[in-house]
Amino acid sequence: MNSNATSSAENRRLLNVAVVGHTNTGKTSLIRTMLRSTEFGAIEDGAGTTRHVEQATISAGDEPILYLHDTPGLEDSNALYLHLQNISKSSKSLSASAVLAEFVASTPVDDLLEQEAKVIRQVLRSDILLYIIDVREPVLEKYRYELEILSKASKPIIPVFNFIADHQQELTRWREQLAAFNIHTALEFDTVAFTFEAEKRLYQKMQTLVESHYQPLQKLIDYRADVWKQLCLSGAKRVAELIVSVACHRESKNSNLEKVTNALAANRIQEFVRKAEQHCLNDLLSIFNFSEKDVAIQKIPVSNGQWQLDIFAPGIIKAYGLDIGSNAAKGAAAGAGIDLMVGGLSLGAASALGAIAGAGWSTFRRYGKEIKAAVQGTQWLCADENTLQVLYLRQQELLEKLMHRGHAAVHAVEVAASDKGKLPDKWVEIITILRQNPVWQESSVSRNNNKQYQEIEARLVDTLLGGDN
Ligand SMILES: Nc1nc2c(ncn2[C@@H]2O[C@H](COP(=O)(O)OP(=O)(O)OP(=O)(O)O)[C@@H](O)[C@H]2O)c(=O)[nH]1
Ligand SMILES: [Mg+2]
């Protein structure tokens, strides 16, 4: 970067955004979700969790765009309101914002309104206020006082409705009340049930209210949209990779070998599938910046990086609403979740038959027995179709939950059977092709450049994202 660019970046004053509101409404939660980090501040279900103003920087790549200031919750707005009235009565010439400044300057550290003074100090230093509302709360007088006090600072205010999931009626009531206050800019942004759209609208509202920062905010919106798209795509590609690696995986089975040897091969497949799923799960969590630690905190049904409900546990196929009838017999023969592939589908057999087909039908008749023997010798074991379906559906659901999980969420992501799950079109065909291409199990240049492979990957990915990112 040249020195001119550096100094102009330094000279440009960053937008200061104060996050304010009644105590325990989710201010710190909002900041965590906007930062995509569970590390910022402390979140607790109780009043007075945040005691000091704390600053966080939101950047577009390396370029800082704005500061978010977390503030302690307002607790006694009634007392504050009366106090401000007294100040303005005693100094009639003061403007509304000067009254606030006077309050900040004259409030000692150990005063009962010390917390409120910290909030107002930050409000006066900021360009815009996000006023966080817990919509489950009735529209009480204390909130009206808060809004009236904050409006004295003459800064644009964006009310942000939090806790909106399943609270539509309350939300409507809040909207009506704010309209009566002549506030129409409110925004729905549930910090736990996250949607990228809501976040984008928040930045767009800031753009219209603080025009001087329009360009940097646009940069931020574009950057975030791009990152979000890449994030969802990486997640979906990771799941596609899982399906490919499991569908391609095989253990050879020889009909002449002992039952025990074949049972061991079946066990090895099960272990492979479990490990592959576990790997994918960990990668998805890290792609979306949720760590192992958060898994424990957030009670995702995973322990030690493994799903609590084993992929081969009895009942899982049924829980995902899949047909157990067709594969039950095969399962019993080869081990739970394992298919026995015979002859025509294996590469060896297919090429043998291809050679014969070229030689003509008479040759086949002549050597039929030998061919049959050769085909029987190339049996193999692989994960069965139901297992692949459960893998796909369960990762699909996890991905969907992670894409809509705010970093303030503290409740379990319940990844269980749902009727929303969707398999890609031509699923059976996809699996059949993958099984015939065991070399695709690992990523390679030739695989990734293969047209047929690319189509399969695209179909798996498209259904995972479902037009959602
Ligand atoms: N269900 C749900 N819970 C939320 C949401 N936002 C915050 N919470 C929970 O609400 C509680 C308070 O959240 P905080 O972020 O600590 O609230 P705060 O406004 O910073 O609180 P103070 O710092 O004490 O003023 C925590 O238990 C959060 O997990 C939300 O959108 N939905
Ligand atoms: Mg807080």
Task: Walk me through the structure.
The structure is a single chain. With 469 residues, the chain is of the alpha/beta class. It has two domains: 13-209, P-loop containing nucleotide triphosphate hydrolases (Rossmann fold, 3-Layer(aba) Sandwich); 238-465, no CATH class. Helix content is 54%, strand content 11%. The protein is built from 19 helices and eleven strands. A six-stranded mixed beta sheet has the order 2-3-1-4-5-6, sandwiched between helices. A three-stranded antiparallel beta sheet has the order 7-11-10, with helices on both faces. A hairpin with a 2-residue loop joins strand 2 (54-60) and strand 3. Helix 4 (96-106) crosses helix 5 (114-125), helix 9 packs antiparallel against helix 10 (259-287) and helix 14 packs antiparallel against helix 15. The relative contact order is 0.10. The model is unreliable at 1-11, 325-333 and 343-364 (pLDDT under 50). The structure holds guanosine-5'-triphosphate and magnesium ion. Guanosine-5'-triphosphate is lined by residues 23-29, 43-45, 47-50, 72-73, 162-163, 190-192, 408, 410.
